[in-house]
Amino acid sequence: MINEMAKECVKIAREHGFSQLEDITDITDDNKWYIAGKLALIHSEVSEMLEELRVGNKQGIIKEGIDVLIRTFELLIAFEGTDIEEELYKKMTINRFREHKHGGKLI
Predict the structure, then answer these.
(1) Fewest CB atoms less than 10 Å from the CB: which of 68, 79, 87, 99?
(2) Domain locations in the chain?
């Protein structure tokens, strides 16, 4: 279900001029700038979330958080053959069995 939602999010973004989707099979020098650009767009959405927090706008935080997900979907889908749902479940399993605040992280 997540894969289908991600594809639909990217399709809508493309239809409105917000997504320049490329297929990525490997990380090469040629496509590092493309990937970096997508990461910068994710970062800009996180910054917009922070601005909404500063003004105390809960709905704005949620809206911008969804934009983070959409931009992240866009990047992950570009990695040819990626099953986002499967990768999410794998990561959840890893996290489930990690020790409490592994690595000594405070936050």
Answers:
(1) 99
(2) 2-104
Lookup: tokens for 66: 């969804």
DSSP codes joined into one string, 38-101? HHHHHHHHHHHHHHHHHTT-HHHHHHHHHHHHHHHHHHHHHBTT--HHHHHHHHHHHHHTSPTT
Cα–Cα distance between 76 and 23 in angstroms, integer? 10
Q: For 2-104, which CATH class?
A: mainly alpha
Extract the tokens encoding 107. 């936050």
Task: Give tens-digit pLDDT for 30-80.
Answer: 889 989 999 999 999 999 999 999 999 999 999 999 999 999 999 998 898
> Taking the CA of residue 103 as centre, how many other CA atoms within 13 Å lie in the half-sphere pointing to its CB?
4
Strand-pairing partners, residue 79, are 24
| Cα–Cα distance measured from residue 17 to residue 75, given in angstroms and rounded to the nearest whole number | 16
> Among residues 69, 64, 72, which one has the least CA distance to residue 48?
64
Q: How far apart are CA 32 and CA 26, in angstroms?
A: 10
